[in-house]
Amino acid sequence: TGGKTTLAALPGTHYFTDVLAQPDGRILAQGYMHSYNGQTALLARFRANGQLDSTFNGKGYALNDFGQGYA
Predict the structure, then answer these.
(1) N or C: which end of the chain has fewer CB within 10 A?
(2) Strand pairing of 13-21 and 38-46?
């Protein structure tokens, strides 16, 4: 993938602020997304090939909506 991947499974604009390469080759990425109701915390795990790892939270990602006014 040339070090790039997309997260088309989610609406809005996504920003990853921290990335961790795990010993098993999977990649954990933490950040946030903007949507119609404010900012939402985003945690995603990818396989080495750039695909979402569905063994993480059943979808490959987890969201936590703090609502408007929180970053």
Answers:
(1) C
(2) unpaired
